[in-house]
Each structure stands twice: as C-alpha cells, then as structure tokens.
C-alpha cells in the first residue's frame, strides 16, 4: 500500500478517542472535561485488563480466541466475593481465589483445545457454558456485595489522580515488556507467526499457548474482582459486555487476528475510544439504536481505513 | 495446523478413507441425535409420535437456517458474528411491515441482503479480518432493529404464523424443512461443480483464482446467500414467536458456529457439510429439551449443554483417530 499515512495503526484509537473527548467537552462545557476523562479511564481500565489477556491468546496464532472471558470474569467475581464475605481482612485471599479461578479456567480451555483438538472458538464457548452454570449455582440471582476496602480501592484517587487506571497502565507496561523482552513473549509471537517454524526452532508451542490462555483467564478474573468492587457487587450479567469488547479492543488496538503480532498500548486507545464514544453519544442524547449503529459503523470504518502491515 | 496437514495427506493417499471420514463427520452428530431421542422416548414414550416430534423440533427451524448461513461464511474460512443480530433485525422488519406493506418488507430484505454482500466485498477488497467486520455489522443490525422497534412487538403476518403451525402429512413441518434444506445444501454445496468451486475458494483461493474464477464474485455471492439464509431464519422465527424482537436471537450466532463444527466443518475453510450442519443444529436445539426431560435443574442446564458439546466433539476426535 501507499506510505502516505505513516502513523502506526494503534494510534488511531487514541486520535479518535481524543476527538470524542474534545467533542463531548465542547458540547457540555469545559468544566466537565476532567470528569469525562476520569470516567472513561476508570471504565476503560476494565476493558484494558480483559483485552490484554485476550491479546496474548489472539497473538498466539490464527484462530486462537477466548470466548469464555465474560463467564470467567463473572465466576471469579462470585468466587472471590464468596471467599471474602464482605470482610476487608479477606481481601488478599479473595484476590488469590479470583486469580486461581482464572488460571484454572484458562488451563481448562487450553486442555480442551489440545486434548480434544477442538477449534478454540468452540472449546472456549463450551467451557463458558459450564463456567456460567457454576457462577449461577454459586450466587443465583443475588448480587454478592464486595468488602468496603475493595470498593474504596477501585475508586480511590490521590491528588486528583485515580489509582486503579494507573495500576492498569503499569500492567500494560509489564505486558509490553513481556512481549518485547522476555523469552516467553518472543516465543509467543514466534508461535503466532508460524507454528511449524516455532516448533522447528525448539519452542514448546503447547507450553507457550497454555501460558497465554492461563494469562487470559487470570486477566479476566482480575477484571471480575475489580469490577465487583467498582460496581457494588458480583452480578450474573456483569461480564456480558466484555465478550465483544475484548475482541474489539484487541483488534482495533493493532493486534493482528492472524496472530504473531501484538500491541499492548493500542488496547488503551481502543478502550478509551469505546468508552468516550458511549459517553459522547449519551451526552448528545442520542437514542440507543443510533448509538449501536454508529458504534458498528465506526468499528468497521476504523478497521477498513487503518493501513495495516501486509503479512505474507 | 498439523491436523489439516494430516487430513490433506489422508485425502490424497487414498479415496476410501476420506469417504469414511466424511461419513463419520456427518454420522456422529446423527448418532448423538438418535441417542438423545432414545433417552427422551424412554422417559416419555408418548413423545414418540407425530405431535411429539412436532413439539420437540418446532423451535429448530430458524436455527437450521441460521446455521446454514453461518456455514456459507465458514466455508470461505471467515466467521460471521453478526448472524444472530441480523436474524433479530429480520424479525423486526417482518413483524412491522410484511403484513401491511409487503412490498416495503421485500425491499428491506433485498437491501439488507445486498448490504451483507457489500460487507463481503469490503472484507475481500481490503483483506479485512471477518471477525471484526462482522462484529461491527452486528452492532449495525442491532442498531437498525432497535430504531425500528425499540420494544418487542409488531405482529407476524397471519399466513406466516399459519404456515409455521401447519401440520403437513408424514412428518412435522420442522423435519420437512430440515430435510429439504439439507438436501438442497447437499446438492448445491457438496455435489454440484459450482459447490466444489465455492469450497475451493475457502480452501485454496489462489488455485480457484488461477482456474479463472473471480474470488471476489464468489465471496459476494456467498455472503449474499448467507444473508438470504439468515433472512429465512428470521422469517421462520417470526412465524413461531409471532412478534419482532431485536434481541431475540443473539445466541444463534454461536449456536450456528457450534452446529457447523458439530457437522464436520472446519475453520480452515473449504471443509463444510450442509447435511452435517443441519443435523448439528437439530442436535443443539434438542439438547435443551433433553435436559429438561432428564430434570436437570435449570441452574445446571447451560453447563450441561457445554458438556454435551464436548461429548459429541470428543467422540468425533476419537472416531477420526481410529479411521486414520
């Protein structure tokens, strides 16, 4: 393709997000600009956590995707809320329980893929039904309340700077370094680019993928834990929005669905874009149907317009 | 990857083996379907009748068509995440316009099918990942449906509702429709020479291109036919529920994918079986009834459906291993 546009693909999310932030602030007054941004950062943080996990899985090769993200998120939230029983003293055991649920779920996903030789879409879909059932039996229709300490942490801000989005940004940095500088990160991208070549190079392909799926499960679980604190408890439908969103932020963030190429920082741009867009359309008082329509059109437009590196 | 390689080499080495494999791929969901029916009939012998079959399979008709639509797209190596939302949109249009303004309704269907084809063209010409484009499409369909019909409502045309509750001779309507759809799909996709080209366009687009076919044309045709099949799913669903609802069918997207894979399809493209897909769709829609017959508590029913999916697919792996 032409090289007129030399901007990296992942910057588009940030640019569109910025445009929406400006538009929203212009419409409802400069005074609200800070509140708009901090809201988008807080909600965006959850999308980023979930999306980062999904990114590892997507990067591990063509066809790899984790559809069990929403159900793992919900199940981990229910398990951790049950462990903590609303007491601040149990915060760490609760977090550990959530992360353990995520890691086990990720391992179960990969086991089904490798042992039954199922396409990842089907394996993770079937597991998501099982996880959903487990969460349903654990909590039923009731909303399980989080400990006050967790709720305080998720909305804590020091000197006007929110802590949780900052923590998630640190996670993004760690993910970037893991992809670029660690052996596992390089092996993951090599596996994603060409499985036979990676195998011939002596990479334990199955081990690398297992790690990707476990990280994805753990990330979804962490998001569930935090989201339960942020939104006042674990609820059965809390993960629903994150199925499509986790895929969308990964792809719009510049990660190739063909695998072998990942971009951690781009996920932030895409997540901010999603959240600022819904804020903007809400501020403009646009009805739900038009909102969906514009969301879809923008997703397609961004994917279609962004120049992508030609693979192969 | 190694799986496909093995399959390809098995195909070239002998002719008998792939035939056996194909038979197994279609046979396995069929066996699963039979096992489920046997269990249901042993619990409730009264279900083994025309009316019993009618009740058991009534709701499978739209899923059969939605799964076939998904199959067309998977055949090209793509995936369609907008299938369920599109079916929902069609129910809205049908319930709103088909009775009073049939011309308008038909025009809407045509425009939407053309839009489907247009997105196929976009995916092809810009080499976009279908998963994200169809994800965007799903929001567009949902958006249009919510604009047209913010809350579930409208009414199905009388003739459509009457057709869906019609009780034809020999077999219930759902079985007739499934059989006809499977037969038509088999003749067009699996038997005809054009079907071989279509499957080839998924398996090895370059080869098909070099043989003088327009792969762009094929993709547009396939997406248009996927839109048409999803239209049929929406029409039959409206006939069953007698109203329109934007959010009636999101589950069809992934159930359809499940049916295609159960029926022996593969995401690599080029490997699909219409007969298998139809049987897969029947199996998945029967799984729900089976679980209530077994008195599985409602909280475990979703999970048990996941387990059934695993069991059937695990059987496929074991069998194809033995065949090799």
Q: Would you write up a description of this structure?
A:
The complex is a heterodimer of chains A (312) and B (324). Chain A has 312 residues and is an all-alpha fold. Chain A has a single domain (11-305), classed as ABC transporter involved in vitamin B12 uptake, BtuC, CATH 1.10.3470. Chain A has 13 helices and 2 strands. Chain A has helices at 11-28, 33-59, 69-84, 91-115, 120-139, 148-154, 163-181, 183-193, 195-200, 205-230, 242-252, 265-283, 288-305, and strands at 157-158, 161-162. In chain A, helix 3 (69-84) packs across helix 10 (205-230) and helix 11 packs across helix 12 (265-283). With 324 residues, chain B is an all-alpha fold. Chain B has one domain (26-37, 47-316): ABC transporter involved in vitamin B12 uptake, BtuC (Orthogonal Bundle). Chain B contains 15 helices and no strands. Chain B is globular, with a radius of gyration of 20 Å. The model of chain B is unreliable at 1-15 (pLDDT under 50). The interface between A and B is large, with 48 and 47 residues.
Give the fraction of residues assigned to helices of chain B: over 70%
- So what's the overall shape of chain B? globular
Strand content of chain A: under 5%
What is the number of beta strands of chain A? 2
Q: What is the annotated CATH architecture of chain A? A: Orthogonal Bundle
Mean pLDDT of chain A: 89
Q: Provide the CATH top-level class of chain B.
A: Mainly Alpha
Oligomer: heterodimer
